Amino acid sequence: MKIKMSGDMMFSLRKLALLGAVEQPVKLSSVHFAEAIKSSVQTAGRRLQELEREGFVHRRITADGQWIILTKSGMEHLKEECYEYQEIFFTTQTVELEFVGCVITGLGEGEYYTTRDEYKRQFEVKLGFTPFPGTLNLRLDSQSIAAREILDVWKGIEIAGFESEKRTFGGGKCFPCKIMNDGAEGIKSAVIIPARTHYPEDVLEIISPVYLRCELQLKDGDEIRARVMT
Length: 230
What we know:
Layout: H1 7-18, E1 26-28, H2 30-37, H3 41-53, E2 57-62, E3 65-70, H4 72-90, E4 96-104, H5 110-114, H6 117-127, E5 136-140, H7 142-153, E6 157-159, E7 162-164, E8 167-169, E9 172-180, E10 187-194, E11 203-207, H8 212-215, E12 223-229
Antiparallel strand pairs: 1-3, 2-3, 4-5, 4-12, 5-11, 6-9, 7-8, 9-10, 9-12, 10-11
Helix pairs in contact: 1-3, 2-3
């Protein structure tokens, strides 16, 4: 279960990130940190202890100070706050994300799920097309992996789960996109983010009304771009 962070802790975590404790440990005294968060030394020390206890920072105390770096959990909380601010300030504007990746062969599950009637009906109503059986899978480059994390926070178009044949099928969300390749105007498609997936974070699944591999003459290793507009 994700730990809920108080406003004071989030403020302190953000200040630590601004002091450089993101990619490598920074040496920091309680006095210096107290100045950064405009509090007493006692409060600053207690705040650091709380962040360490909840797993948001790693801290190593030495004779002349302490070394601090944000944990993965701490970074995830900061990213969520960042994305929420983006939602606030960009909801009245068109926000575009572009994903670049190489075509890979998937696990073969996409055809089974995209042909389920309960999913197909939702795709038809909410996306405006019936998907070709299966998904196109992209192995994302490093910049696109960072952009992929934004989709986890954005609302997207909900695809509801359901129960059938004594089995539960999970939900997810979709983001309409266009597949760009060799100067083409773009093929209407959608990025699908299942609530449960066997793929790592660097793999993006795409559904489309056409067989993209055939339409664009794609093979494993070919690079394409998917442009998401919200």
